[in-house]
Amino acid sequence: MPPPPAKHQHSENSLSALLLSHTSWLTPLLRTGYKRRLEENDMYRILPEDRSKRLGDELQRFWEYEVRKAGKELRKPKLTKALLKCYGKSYAVFGVFTFLMEAIKVVQPVLMGKLIQYFENYDPEDMTSLYWAYGYAAGMALSTFGLTIFQHLYYYHVQRMGMKIRVAMCHMIYRKALGLSSEALGRTTTGQIVNLLSNDVNRFDEVTLNMHYLWVGPLQAVVIIFFLWYEIGPSCLAGVAVISLMMPMQTWFGKLFGILRSKTAVLTDSRIRIMNEVVSGIRIIKMYAWEKMFSALVTEVRRKEIREIMRTSYLRGLNMASFFASSKIIVFVTFTVFVLLGNPISASRVFVTVSLYGTIKLTVTLFFALAIEKVSETVVSIRRIKNFLLLDEIDRRGFALPEEENNKNSLELHNLTCYWDKSLDAPSLQNVSLTVKSPVGLLELPRDKGVLRVKGQLIYASQQPWVFPGTIRSNILFGKELNTQKYEKVLRACALKKDLGLLPDGDLMLIGDRGATLSGGQKARVNLARAVYQDADIYLLDDPLSAVDAEVGRHLFEQCICGLLKNKTRILVTHQLQYLKAADHIVVLMEGHVMAQGTYDELRCSGLDFVSLLKSDEEQERRPQAADPDKLSMLSQKTIRSCGSSTSHNSLLPAENWADQLPGETAQTMAEESRFEGNISCDIYLKFFTAGCSSLVLLAIVLLSVIAEAAYIFQDWWLLLGVLLMVGFVLSALTAAAVIFGFARSLAIFDGLVSSSQNLHNSMFNAVLRTPVHFFDVNPIGRILNRFSKDIGQLDSLLPITFVDFYQLMLQNIGVVVVAASVIPLILIPVVPLLLFFLYLRRFYLQTSRDVKRLESTTRSPVFSHLSSSLQGLWTIRAFRAEDRFQKTFDDHQDLHSEAWFLFLITSRWFALRLDSICTLFVTIATFGCLLLRDGLEAGQVGLVLTYAVTLVGNFQWTVRQSAEVENMMTSVERVVEYTELESEAPWETQKRPPPEWPNQGLVTFDRVNFSYSADGPLVLKDICATFQPCEKVGIVGRTGAGKSSLVSALFRLAEPQGKIYIDGILTSEIGLHDLRQKMSIIPQDPVLFTGTVRKNLDPFNQHTDEDLWNALQEVQLKAAVEELPGKMETVLAESGSNFSAGQRQLVCLARAILRKNRILIIDEATANVDPRTDELIQRTIREKFRDCTVLTIAHRLNTIIDSDRILALDSGTIQEFDHPYILLQNKESALFKLVQQTGQVEAAALLQSARQVTSERWSSFVKRLLFFHTAV
């Protein structure tokens, strides 16, 4: 229920009136929050001037101007200058509020001193003095009221300024990420960018709060010294000397904070990068049983990070302890010198001096110190952001798409040489000259020399399908208007109609992060449909048929590529040679050179054998670094252009009905992020505090705190006695005790809280590692990373310092009340109702505040998810020229988060303003009450009451606010604890351990197996009964969504199957997951490499010798490529292994399988995205190296499994047939026969011949063995 814009206008433009009217417009929202949980539609719309786009564009202009100016002046650009020009003047104005606030704090002790002097010289007959006393009392009341107003104006404006800078910086970081060149992407990581958005930019929220104290602090100190000199003369210099000694220490602390922040940020980058890789590659990690390795990796990085955080926390502890101890030291030193100089002590002198020292202590040792600390940390963050913003961007100047008069689409390449990375020897393209009627997708490939001219609108469909979080419809439309007729045609052409009919919400179903709710085939078809719907001039299709089965592939080729797009220029990259005859022109690239080009007939007449060319035994070239390695594969393979041609193949099904006859698939649905309701439970607090230390340690900390506070309290008590009795020895002992125990208390609490953060992080990480893969399918990566970045960041830094502040103030307040009540028991009368009202107000406020804070956390997750998704699909976004639209979506996510953040800011002001208003009333009552009860009071008592009224009220409301802040920050603990209690999969090891040599045969038996990815999900495998014999080679086929990959998931127990699976007679459900998974090898469809050395990627547990590793690399023909790396096997791979091409990453997975030497090997469509040459190498290696193993191969390329001993055909999760391939091909009704026919007549005949030949060879071998046995007998 957003308010009308007018309300927003009132809330901003008339802020002073708003504060004076107690922010009454927020009260209805707080009442709503008190009654029920707040939702996103309860939040107020963001103010126009706070929108992400407006703020980002403004700061971007200043930054671009600074970059241009720096270029002219031959210096490095400074982001600080751009920030100062953009926000400096506005922020400077807010310094007026700081000045007025601190001026009032100086005036108040002087007025109080005058009031105490009245009581020292009390004369009931002197009415003139009484009138002056009333004037001083009124001045104190008015100054307290003014302080309240100026304080909240100041905090509102500077916090809003911090929000603006943060939002603008996030906008710029995302905009930069969209434009990064491939080389720049190799120099940064997703983890670093996430850390910039989650932690570094938050420094702007913090630094704006106290930065004005860098000039107000010293100025106020000079003024206060003047007043102190007036009160106690030269003795004040003793206290000033103590402060002067503390200031250099604070400055030194500030520099140390900056140094430690730099070290911590690098380690946090590394941790989040690893987490990003873990979440992205969790299936591979689980199937390889590598959880322990990654757990050790993250634990080690976290240990180093915590070491720096702990040092920072100790510094903070010393800082805060020095703040609380400094007042005791200053007062003790000052009055010791004052007495030694023979001066008489009076109540007015004591309390004015104490109050003035209290003011200077607060400003100089707290706010000034915090300003130095935060500025030091912010400088580090600004430098990190600046370095990111200065990374190279893709050069689009040469790739404009001009409209010529004849409006013809064309491409001209002339002696074009391109490198992904100039530091590598081999260019990706070398001296390529080509003139065709359409361009190829070279926009991402930096040119070294040559000419590339492009005319016409180009659309690109990537080899690796990319979808973004949103509906299926939004993924296909991709910003275009919905044209129902055209949309239906595209759905039919891309074989999506049946799938959408099976989904509960049809094309309005939400796609999860990384397309987790869709199968690989569905993602490929959505990816293709997006390109087709754009209605461009030129279509660059990078092997869109590899992820679908033969029948669907045939449909896509005939109905989409050569049907719906028949009047368009198309460039098709494909490994499926049966489609060559349909091409008008063929270009063959090898090693970056054009080997041949022409029509199919021309190339055949030239004697060129396509298949043998691509299956050359030459060692495959090493691919250079790239953000999207699949591009490299595209550029190194055959390129086919089919322009305006129709297919020459005959369809097996009528074209108009084919889409409806194709198989459909069900899909999973995304889970909404959970959000707690109500109070933070005591259980959460208990788990947080006990995570870092035992009950005995907690008891010791409490005892230490009580002793420190007792020393603190009794020093005040003896100071009062010192006024009356001149006692000094005990005062010095209590001062020493207060200082020593105060420091010990702060350090102990910080140590305990940071240890809690460390242990909770480790528990959360281990829980995430152990949870079933279904969790990762229904939770976006941004949602998970949000907990490991932002929430853990809160636990590491903000929560400890806030809690320590609250805890120390709470104890101090108790002590203040005890001392004051022991002198004037009547002071308890207003304190008790004040406390009760405060607690009621806190409860009323927290009901809403917690919900707003939780909303702020959940609205932050989409920002990270959108960033992660955009980086994955960066090339597609740029090819579609969709940067502006994705920037707008990012800005929308930011605006939603800003709504929650701004609401949290303004509700905090609502709460604080009411607390301070009540406190102002209390000070007024106490001040005038002393005058009304003047006949029975002494000056010392009045001084104590007034000093404690001001101190208690200020501290009391701040304590209540800090307690609310602690409660709000505990929502992060709540979210972390939630992830520590995730559902866990079966144990990694159980008491029943299989024999070390198990399995020694490789016999796999499925006995009535049903399988679902979640307890309430649909069955994807139904009543599977099959036995795979030892050393048998089994091919597994089926249409998209038939359950092929689910069979592998059931075997690896990625979710617990129903029924029984035996391996060599052992029931797999009775043994540990690691005992099972380590004994099987898998070569996955999507090869995954992790950041780390080549050695760690091959052998993470150091189980093999160097000789074994080099031999494995030699077997897969990667030895030469690895030897060329700077550190050979010790070379650290880039993020996601982008040093290698897709084919090379697949070969690394094959090398892993060779090293593991297991009796069971599963190949899950491992060759779908590689060229035939790499495919042949993989198949040959498998036949040689895994001759004595049971091999299960899932494949869409039928030629890779046609020589299998048996073929298993699946359909809708059930077994259709399971027999020898030649026997199945004899039956024209069999599923395998139909799949083979989809490949075309020539390919089908070749497959049939291969099956016949394999069967003949096996029969001959069997007969020979039988004759040998008979002869022997």
Automatic annotation (TrEMBL):
The UniProt record lists the keyword Repeat: yes
Q: Which residues cross the membrane?
A: 91-111, 131-156, 213-232, 238-260, 320-341, 350-372, 684-706, 718-744, 814-841
| Residue ranges occupied by any ABC transporter domain in the UniProt entry | 315-616, 1004-1237
Query: Gene Ontology terms, cellular component aspect?
Result: apical plasma membrane; basolateral plasma membrane
Q: What is this protein called?
A: Multidrug resistance-associated protein 4
SMART domains annotated for this entry?
AAA
Query: Which molecular function GO terms apply here?
Result: ABC-type glutathione S-conjugate transporter activity; ABC-type xenobiotic transporter activity; ATP binding; ATP hydrolysis activity
How would you describe this protein's topology in the membrane? Multi-pass membrane protein
> Subunit details for this protein?
Interacts (via PDZ-binding motif) with SNX27 (via PDZ domain); this interaction accelerates MRP4 internalization.
Gene name, per UniProt, is ABCC4
What organism is listed for this UniProt entry?
Answer: Myripristis murdjan
List, alphabetically, the InterPro entries matched: AAA+_ATPase, ABC1_TM_dom, ABC1_TM_sf, ABC_transporter-like_ATP-bd, ABC_transporter-like_CS, ABC_transporter_C-like, ABCC4_TMD1, P-loop_NTPase
What is its subcellular localisation?
A: Apical cell membrane; Basolateral cell membrane
Q: Which GO terms describe its biological process?
A: lipid transport
